[in-house]
Write a structure and sequence with these properties.
Elements lengths: L2 H17 L8 H6 L6 H10 L5 H5 L12 H16 L3 H9 L1 H18 L17 H29 L7 H13 L11 E5 L2 E3 L1 H29 L11 H26 L10 H23 L6 H18 L6 H20 L2
Antiparallel strand pairs: 1-2
Helix pairs in contact: 1-5, 3-5, 3-14, 5-6, 6-7, 7-12, 7-13, 8-13, 8-14, 9-14, 10-11, 11-12, 12-13
Length: about 350
């Protein structure tokens, strides 16, 4: 991990520890104030616990032009981004995506779409709906390894993170607390529950919390849709296509709408925000990932709406290309931050448990 980033984060954390004005802002500050000295692992944990709501920056009296020049959101964002790249497997892929995320996302989607177009020779000519373009067996053969690879890669990455931050044996109570904090995005509500200053220093808003929830729950609904369809296909011998009022369709459509709205609203908020308060070199990677996830959802909705038209084959290969690109790039994109954040919240729950009488 880059020593200069850790050194700057350590300097700012020590000043914040002496001031303590922002103690009630989010989970970062109780964890920060519990330490007297900060190891590299402590700083990595604090960085991944930070949700970059930026309220502490706008409240701070020691930001530039003060000689201390504090910018804790940026210092932690730099360490956080560097930790994701350091722990990623393989590291080179993570660094490349953060540098040129938009270009890599577009090229990967188009490349896989062309491969799917060529793979139509494998299609089951007697299939219904999408399976008339690409057979069910071909889809399984392609997407099952693509689904397992990011799980294995993220597993290795999180294991490295857990060791680096001094994580201990897990307890159910730690996981319950961490999942609860992640489910309601508590750390994006601000110290007083009014929201954060991500868009404007003088305006508290819950917008960023709301779009994060839309993206998270939209993704979970889409995942649930795929899972239910898999059980119906293999467990009950009920193959696709499914009707509008079927459970896979209801879950998938609602999840897709939430994802589209959440992703495009998140891009809008990022374009309005001050880049100086985040990891500037990761801007392309963040926009690339959000755009890719939004396109996966949008192409899926268009595919459903135009599935009976001549546009269906072209839409299908684009959608499948986007889904495959999303899966394979997940360990190296901003998608990984959700897993790291959950690990950081779990680690913090351990800290709270050990320090609570």
């Amino acid at each position: 991990m880059q020593t200069e980033l850790l050194a700057e984060a350590r300097r700012q954390a020590e000043i914040c520890n002496a001031c303590r004005y922002c103690e009630g802002y989010c989970s970062v500050f109780p964890a920060l104030h519990a330490e007297r000295a900060f190891s590299d692992g402590d700083l990595t944990q604090l960085a991944n616990l930070c949700h970059n709501c930026r309220g502490c920056y706008y409240a701070c009296q020691y930001t530039a032009p003060h000689e201390f020049e504090l910018n804790l959101p940026q210092a932690l964002a730099n360490v956080r981004q560097d930790s994701w790249e350091e722990f990623a497997f393989p590291q080179s892929a993570a660094r490349a995506f953060q540098k040129s995320g938009v270009m890599i996302a577009v090229a990967t989607v188009l490349g896989f779409a062309l491969l799917f177009w060529a793979a139509q020779a494998l299609a089951s000519m007697g299939g219904d709906g999408f399976y008339a373009v690409l057979s069910h067996n071909a889809m399984v053969a392609i997407f099952l390894p693509a689904f397992l690879f990011p799980l294995a890669s993220l597993g290795l990455s999180l294991r490295r993170y857990w060791r680096a931050t001094g994580g201990e044996r897990l307890r159910l109570s730690d996981l319950v607390q961490a999942f609860g904090a992640a489910a309601n995005m508590r750390n994006l509500s601000g110290g007083h529950g009014d929201g954060c200053n991500f868009e404007d220093e003088d305006r508290f808003t819950q917008a960023r919390r709301a779009v994060h929830q839309a993206v998270m729950y939209g993704f979970l609904l889409c995942f649930a849709s795929t899972s239910v369809a898999t059980v119906m296909h293999y467990g009950f011998d009920i193959p696709a296509p499914y009707g509008l009022l079927s459970l896979p369709k209801l879950l998938g459509l609602s999840g897709g709408v939430l994802l589209v709205v959440g992703c495009f609203e998140m891009i809008r908020l990022k374009l309005k925000s001050d880049r100086h308060l985040g990891a500037a070199h990761a801007w392309g990677g963040e926009i690339g990932f959000i755009g890719l996830l939004g396109f996966v959802a949008l192409s899926g909705l268009l595919l459903y709406g135009l599935g009976e038209t001549a546009a269906m084959p072209a839409l299908l290969v684009l959608h499948l290309g986007a889904v495959l690109a999303f899966f394979l790039l997940t360990p190296f994109t901003k998608m990984a931050h959700g897993f790291y954040r959950l690990a950081a919240l779990t680690r913090d729950a351990q800290r709270v448990r050990k320090t609570t009488p």
